[in-house]
């Protein structure tokens, strides 16, 4: 069976933390590929409203082109409403019976797991891999594997605040993404 890690996210915008954790998990778990999966509506927070789905996908494309094992899965963008992972993984398992999926989450999402939609059933249809994230706890009663990554204190919120305040985002996102944000005047207000 092919082993694929799914990094679901809002990617508003994608930053180097996403790339680092994807690469670390790819190697630590001997996965074949990582699929970056932008959500339509994040179940637990509100998108910034500054970007379109197409812009988030374009920034993801610019981010992942560095790695031949990185792909984008746009399935959640075809569905309106909140992107519940249970619904998505049911569809992905049906569409790819030859693939063993691993859903990758940062420690902030581990803390939130008890609130996930149909969490008990979700745990039965996909394996979870967690990674550490500064300021969040990894303890959970759910059967989640753990991959230790270098602590990365970068978030999409930080990038948005920096742009709004006219501060640098160099090296926090890929240069191509920085240029895209500037050219499209994203996150300025
Ligand atoms: N610096 C990081 N360290 C570990 N995990 C991270 C990091 N940044 C993002 N993640 C994980 O990547 C996934 C997608 O994150 P997302 O696209 O929501 O970015 P974010 O930085 O958390 O965004 P925001 O600041 O807008 O909440 C989530 O599982 C999140 O926990
Ligand atoms: O299904 C849920 O209830 C659920 C609750 C919180 C987060 N998720 C998913 O977890 C991934 C990371 O979430 P986010 O919002 O931090 O980008 C993303 O794919 C979300 O759709 C899913």
Task: Please characterize this protein's 3D structure.
The chain has helices at residues 16-28, 53-64, 85-95, 107-112, 119-125, 156-164, 175-183, and strands at residues 2-9, 33-38, 70-72, 99-106, 127-131, 144-147. The protein contains seven helices and six strands, in the order E-H-E-H-E-H-E-H-H-E-E-H-H. Strands 3-2-1-4-5-6 form a six-stranded parallel beta sheet. The longest helix is centred in the N-terminal third of the chain and has 13 residues, at 16-28. Helix 1 links the parallel strand 1 and strand 2 (33-38). It has one domain: HUPs (Rossmann fold, 3-Layer(aba) Sandwich), CATH 3.40.50.620. 35% of the residues lie in helices and 18% in strands. It is globular, with a radius of gyration of 16 Å. The protein is an alpha/beta fold and 189 residues long. Helix 2 (53-64) packs antiparallel against helix 7 (175-183) and helix 3 packs parallel to helix 5. The structure holds adenosine-5'-triphosphate and nicotinate mononucleotide. Adenosine-5'-triphosphate binds at residues 9-12, 17-18, 21, 105-106, 108-109, 131, 133, 152, 154-157.
Judging from the principal axes of the Cα atoms, what is the shape?
globular
Structural class: alpha/beta
State the strand order across the main sheet. 3-2-1-4-5-6
**What fraction of the residues are assigned to beta strands by DSSP?**
15-25%
Q: Tell me the CATH architecture.
A: 3-Layer(aba) Sandwich
CATH topology grouping: Rossmann fold
Query: How many domain units?
Result: 1
Bound molecules: adenosine-5'-triphosphate, nicotinate mononucleotide
CATH superfamily, by name, is HUPs
Reading the helices and strands in chain order gives EHEHEHEHHEEHH
DSSP strand count: 6
